[in-house]
Amino acid sequence: MAGDQGHSDKRSPGMLEDEVLAALWAAAGPMSPADVQAELGGSLAYTTVMTTLARLHRKGLATRERAGRGFVYAPAVGEAAHTAEAMRDLLARRSDRAAVLAEFVSRLSPDDEQVLQRLLREVDG
Amino acid sequence: MRLVVYLPFLVSALLGLTIPRFGRRLAPATGTRLLVASGAACALSTAFALAALAGTYVGQLPAVAAFGDWSVRLLKANDPVPPLVGQAALGLLAVLAVLAAATAVRRGLALAEAARACRGAHPGAGDLVIVRDAVPRARAVPGRRAGRIVVTTGMLRALTAEERRVLLAHERAHLGDRHHLYRLAAAVTAALNPMLAALPRTVEYTTERWADERAAAHVGDRRLAARAVIRAALATSRHAVGPAALAFSDGAVPDRITCLLDAPPRRRPFAVAALVAVLTLCLIAVNEARADTESLFERSEPATLTSHA
């Protein structure tokens, strides 16, 4: 637990790949390495972002196409249909399987929602 | 059999009533470990106490006594446990043992199936599996070697890049600290001792808090961690309309956010001491009940009586 403290910018290659892949999926369109760097925050070196994108491309998790002098990257959509269905099933609270897994956030009541809206304004402000 | 055999039931009842309070009060890592440990100690000692109460009744059955060197007549004379209590203890123990075993098997199988479903998914980047789905969801799926974090595109889009780091760190903490094992232990414990029914929910809460704290430490910003949880929760509830929406909740999410916006959890030596006392009392009670049972059967051996005479 203490190991995490004070190393907020120390990320393993795997963690970095996760973050970059998540950014590609969250984006509206293809991203250049500079876009990804801007999205993830200034603490990452440009070359690190480029290497990570290249690695995702090599693994088949991202596609890329030429844009001007460099590449732009997009997430690869190639999941087998049955896998996608199995995953959706895992996430929804429909099965026994899903019930044993930790879920990031549980359901809110209307009252909770109001409290959270207020807290969000507080945190953002 | 002295009254000490009933001590585990008293301790369990007290713990059962105070579990949620301990869960909110203790630092989450300490709280999870201590609650699971003291809960398990209570459940095992009540099971042992039931076995001890049932044992004297079982020992009086001629078919069983034939294998032992005690006399049914002497045992019946020495035994202070009414036969009805012995019978009830035996029946209760059998039912609870079956329930506990069934819970362990059902949850163990569910975890194994979840892990198997994830093995089919692309072994992509670090440990992240992204599912194309607008409904924002995220779950940690523990595996035998490496676990997986399964997140929908809906969840990724609901958060900013730095909030996604919180989400990933949170789910990674679930996997790294093996939170599913604490939850499994809590579920089996509650099945074995229904007085501890509050344990599974409380351990779910403390493990969420534990992962929140680890995520906050990882990004080095408690407010950011709080914001990520708020935004994810609001996005999730926007999608849960219709009959799926709940009119009430356990209030876990607002609690977690309040804790994150507060200072890091403090040490609670008195709460820790209380749970250590629970553990100790259970061990003492089990040992006393064991000694009582042994001496009861020894006193009921006819040979021992004649040799002393």
TrEMBL record, chain B:
The keyword Plastid does not apply. This is Peptidase M48. It comes from the Bacteria. Its cofactor is Zn(2+). Coiled coil: none annotated. The keyword Iron does not apply. InterPro entries: Beta-lactam_resp_regulator, Peptidase_M48. Binds 1 zinc ion per subunit. Keywords: Hydrolase, Membrane, Metal-binding, Metalloprotease, Protease, Transmembrane, Transmembrane helix, Zinc. It comes from Microbispora corallina. The chain crosses the membrane at residues 6-22, 34-58, 84-105, 270-287.
